[in-house]
């Protein structure tokens, strides 16, 4: 679990605990560290809901709360999303993008509306969790947001049209949820690809087109496919049943009208059961002798 002694580090600005085996709930006090502006807890096993305190991180609400960081040119910082990433090198701690990266955990519950208060946040990544409910309209208040990743969750409802107000938003991904309706048009949304929205069966992927206009054609196609899907198995079963009945009738006719075949068939059956009987009796006698030897050696 996240050690409680971290709560005493009041000047802590950057916290990266990613790619570990940390579990349990994210502690409430983590959001009370006034200078914290970069948090990466991704690729762990954290569960439960996101603490409400994360909507009140002072350094992400007001730029006046963040402390000034000195230059550390002799000790460069390298930030990499994964082992294959070339990464970014920083000479100042303050050069890190203000970020909340909580991807690839077991977090549940809603996406907190209060996250909209974090006007200084640049990156919000909640992907690969189990968040549910709708996308809050309040996220449109995050005026500095550059990247929003909500993919691979269980979110429902529509994408708020107010998100088009995020003029700095360059990365947006809501793929593989349960979203529905139209994709908002205008603003930065005109630069996003369909890959950022796939995996939502009720979401219209054709930008600048209404899902309701396409619905009749989609419905008709689905009905045709459903009719074909139900007709094909029925024809298959019927063919198999007719073939089985025809084969059984042919065997029965051969045995009934050809006496030699009938005699040979029943002799074969008798020999088969005789063989089974002999094998069983041999096994029984062997087991009986072993048992008698153990009782009377």
Approximately how much beta-strand content do the residues carry? 15-25%
What fold name stands as the CATH topology of the largest domain?
Leucine-rich repeat, LRR (right-handed beta-alpha superhelix)
Number of domain modules: 2
Work out the radius of gyration. Answer: 34 Å
Shape: elongated
Low-confidence stretches: 65-72, 212-230
DSSP helical segment count: 3
Helices and strands: which structural class?
Answer: alpha/beta
Mean pLDDT, to the nearest integer, reads: 82
Can you tell me about this structure?
The structure is a single chain. By secondary structure, the chain is an alpha/beta fold. It folds into 2 domains: 4-209, Alpha-Beta Horseshoe (Leucine-rich repeat, LRR (right-handed beta-alpha superhelix)), CATH 3.80.10; 219-295, no CATH class. It has 3 helices and 15 strands. It has helices spanning 58-61, 211-257, 259-295; strands at 14-16, 23-25, 38-40, 45-49, 77-79, 88-90, 99-101, 106-110, 123-125, 130-133, 147-149, 154-157, 171-173, 178-181, 202-203. Strands 2-4-8-10-12-14-15 form a 7-stranded parallel sheet, with no helix packed on it. A 6-stranded parallel sheet has the order 1-3-7-9-11-13, with no helix packed on it. A two-stranded antiparallel ribbon has the order 5-6. Helix 2 crosses helix 3 (259-295). The model is unreliable at 65-72 and 212-230 (pLDDT under 50).
